[in-house]
Amino acid sequence: MGAYLLRRLLLIVPTLVGIMLVNFTLTQFVPGGPIEQIVARVQGEGDVFRNIAGGGDAGQGGGGEKYAGAQGLPPEFVAELEREFGFDKPPVQRFLTMLGNYLRFDFGQSWFRSISVVDLVVEKMPVSITLGLWSTLLAYLISIPLGIRKAVRDGTAFDTWTSSAVIIGYAIPGFLFAVLLMVLFAGGSYWKIFPLRGLTSDDFDTLSTMGKIRDYLWHITLPVIAATISSFATLTLLTKNSFLDEINKQYVMTARAKGLTERRVLYGHVFRNAMLIVIAGFPAMFLGVFFGSSILIETIFSLDGLGRLGFEAAVQRDYPVIFGTLYVFGLLGLLVGILSDLMYVLVDPRIDFEKRAG
Asked: Can you give the residue ranges of the ABC transmembrane type-1 domain (predicted)?
């Protein structure tokens, strides 16, 4: 296992460099870079893209030399912008400089917020941790017992109507379900039980410890439910199918023939094998919800998290935020892939990745 882990760790570096290189190269061809954004603001233009006459991007990824719409502005002003953002250097030099800084975890400052990228991400992280952690835990707490029950009662009326409910839940987009929850329970047209926006109340700091916990849970209930709906459906069906696959195997029939109780057979023999793929996938699922939380759900509930941060950075062409978060999230994603493999071995020690690689 040690040699396998070493190979996976060594592969992180070229993989991460490849991810950064592809995205950096793509930005060379994306119009509407940060300089165009600033030029448009200076000139009072509302639409940046009206000022781009088929020109390239001179952002951290852009390489255009002229900026349509900059007529009337002093050339020294535009040249100073290029020097300030580092666009007076060749793209290769900018890319190598960026990688060198990122290896030291120096991500610089946001170009449009006057705050370091690290501080900006830390500021938005509580929302994403809330959605990611609670949504993942809620999905597992509901889906595993429900999936096991459906597998045991496969083909019954219970299995039929719960499958219908699961399929409906999977088919409903998270943002649409969020709107439905707001209409029903946040004062839209029926009951005003939960707050409309925010992660905490305005008087949160004045509350007692228990009051803060209640206020926090009160605010996160609707967005967490909205973020859980699709993953809950997928995980339920995955759990059911895993158990059905194991229940029909020879060792289960042998255990029953020995006189073991159904509960002992189910949880003493089937559970570990059936839950292998479900439990081992926990890190990847959490990371997916954590970093991929819906921008629409965050917007609907007025939550300022990493989803909105990524969207706003892309719109503003805030390349330090875009590339900095891409580097960190890519690194975490690769590490979580290794962690998932370790979870497989932990759940079932019979798995040997070194033999498979050989």
From this structure: 125-344
Q: Please check whether residue 246 is in contact with residue 254, taking contact to mean a CB–CB distance below 8 angstroms.
A: no
Q: Tell me, yes or no, whether 137 and 89 share the same domain.
A: no
The pLDDT tens digits for 242-282 are 888 888 788 888 888 888 887 888 877 787 777 777 776 66
CA 213, distance to chain mean position in Å, is 25
154-211 pLDDT, tens digit each: 889 998 999 888 888 888 887 888 888 888 888 767 788 888 777 888 888 888 889 8
Residue type, 225: I
Asked whether the beta carbons of 8 and 341 are under 8 A apart, the reply is yes
Q: Which residues contact 144 (CB under 8 A, 6 or more apart)?
A: 235, 239, 275, 278
Domain count, the chain: 2
CA-to-CA dists, residue 59 to 43, 68, 143, 219, 238, angstroms: 19, 14, 45, 39, 44
